[in-house]
Amino acid sequence: MNDSKKMAKLAVEALEEKKAADVTVIDISDVTCIADYFIIANGQNSNQVQALVDNVTDKLGRLGYNYSHIEGYNAANWVLVDYKDVVIHVFSSEDRRFYDIERIWRDGKFINTEDL
Q1: Do 104 and 66 contact (CB within 8 A), yes or no?
Q2: At what angle do helices 46-62 and 3-17 cross, to 10 degrees?
């Protein structure tokens, strides 16, 4: 298993531990060079969005994966965590519907989370 796929699997597990809703993984490696995977999830409120992000960064950090950038944490409507090869988007439910990242990246390969 390559490193970005391993990181994506760990991130999905961390999101699911905190009951993230509708976790989606898109392999964008054939579409762009900015990352290998986008992981998209949402929480029910700003506290859960932050808890989801905290769990991902904590779990990956303990295993030696440190993010290069995090954006939107304080507002907690759309938090982007950039691990270079894996980019994690955690939305509030309303903002996820509004921005519809899955539609924008529909040329990527949608991966079943159990297949990671």
Answers
A1: no
A2: 140
**How many whole angstroms separate alpha carbon 109 and alpha carbon 112?**
10
What does the pLDDT read at residue 1? 54
Is the CATH number 3.90.1150.10 carried by domain 3-21+44-115? no
Q: Are 31 and 101 in contact (CB under 8 A)?
A: no
**Domain boundaries, given as residue ranges, for the chain:** 3-21+44-115
pLDDT band at residue 58, thresholds of 50, 70 and 90?
very high
pLDDT at 114: 86
- 10 Å CB burial of residue 18 (0-12, 13-18, 19+) is middle
State the pTM of this model.
0.94
d(CA 115, CA 24): 12
Give the three-state DSSP class for 19: coil
